[in-house]
Design a protein that fits this description.
It is globular, with a radius of gyration of 19 Å. The longest helix has 15 residues. By secondary structure, the chain is α/β, with parallel strands linked by helices. The structure holds NADP nicotinamide-adenine-dinucleotide phosphate.
Length: about 300
């Protein structure tokens, strides 16, 4: 049976990734979309979720591509309407909201797929397998991009619940928590807030694994020139580097996997969503979100130069 999907929030990621992935997947039928200011050609379009649910009652699932501040209300509404839900990252504005959504999905017997798209990047599975039997010594994350290039005009990212530089940074933490054989906690953080914005433009995290191994992370939205989305991990028997957001893996400097682009992530996400819906299961893991929340809780704050969106 083809799953009829309603897509909510037609912005950059919906157009760049969700619509092409849905159109290419025979297990889905993009049956409707809802967005206040946008529509999708040849797909019935509605101004909001409630109108879409009323007009197309036989939708099986709702895929939510709005900013995180709008995730909770939409996901709750969709679950209460009996739909399966796929949720973009970051999963919500607060950690408690995710717990409530997971409870609601379980109570209603619906699928909640709380996604971390970077976990589906080409090098991630092999990195996890490499680390499974090795002893970690140290690690560092360098996640630096030009916000003007990647998030042009996105005001929500600077507002409370918008995550600032953690909007991309949480992708690194989603990969880290996926590939490490044991857990990791935040021990300290420095968050830099532009004088005129409410979310951080840069952050440094000091993390430590259960075994006491230190892992540092540098997130920065002010990167010009070469962009970096890299994770480097040193073990007693070799070192790995995941580059380009997890797409490329090298072991001891030798390239092992190299994805052409992030083009594979969303097709894999939707395959997983279809599998979960068919199996009647949910997938929720808020550890990356907890790391970000903990950085906000214990991080030192520094005010830096104003930033124009
Ligand atoms: P975007 O370009 O701003 O699009 C989001 C759309 O959601 C908006 O165009 C807007 O469309 C709608 N929306 C609903 N409620 C909103 C609100 N309260 N504030 C602002 N817009 C609202 O953002 P995006 O880049 O697609 O990102 C959306 C989500 O996907 C985020 O959680 C982000 O982290 C995630 N994501 C983004 C990327 C990327 O490369 N951009 C990659 C992976 C994941 P209407 O005005 O028509 O309602």
């Amino acid at each position: 049976m083809r799953l009829k999907v309603g897509l909510l929030g037609i912005g950059k990621i919906a157009r760049d990734q969700h619509i092409p992935a849905l159109n290419a997947n025979p297990r889905f039928d993009l049956a409707a979309c809802a967005s206040r200011n946008a529509s999708v050609s040849c797909v019935p379009s509605f101004p909001d979720l409630d109108t879409m649910l009323g007009a197309v009652p036989d939708l099986h699932c709702i895929s939510i591509c709005t900013p995180p501040q709008a995730h909770f209300d939409a996901a709750l509404t969709a679950l209460r309407a009996g739909k399966h839900v796929m949720l973009e990252k970051p999963p919500a504005a607060t950690t408690r909201q995710i717990a409530l959504l997971a409870d609601e999905a379980a109570r209603r017997g619906r699928t909640l797929f709380q996604t971390w798209h970077s976990r589906f990047a080409g090098g991630v599975d092999a990195a996890r397998e490499f680390l499974r039997t090795r002893k970690l010594v140290s690690g560092r994350i360098i996640w630096k991009e030009d916000v003007h290039h990647w998030h042009p005009g996105q005001r929500w990212i600077w507002e409370p619940g918008g995550f600032g530089v953690f909007d991309p940074g949480i992708n690194a933490l989603s990969v880290l928590t996926e590939i490490l054989p044991n857990d990791v906690c935040v021990e300290g953080a420095l968050l830099e807030f532009p004088q005129n914005q409410q979310s951080p433009i840069a952050a440094n995290l000091r993390m430590r694994t259960e075994d006491g191994v230190e892992i540092g992370a540098e997130f920065d939205f002010r990167q010009k020139g070469e962009q970096s989305w890299d994770i480097e991990l040193q073990t007693t028997t070799g070192a790995i580097k995941l580059a380009r957001g997890g797409a490329d893996l090298s072991i001891d400097g030798r390239s092992v996997t190299a994805d052409e682009s992030m083009a594979g992530e969303y097709p894999r996400l939707y395959q997983r969503f279809a599998d979960l819906c068919e199996a009647g299961k949910s997938e929720v893991d808020w550890r990356p979100f907890q790391l970000v929340a903990d950085a906000f809780l214990i991080g030192e704050r520094r005010i830096v130069a104003p930033h124009d969106i």
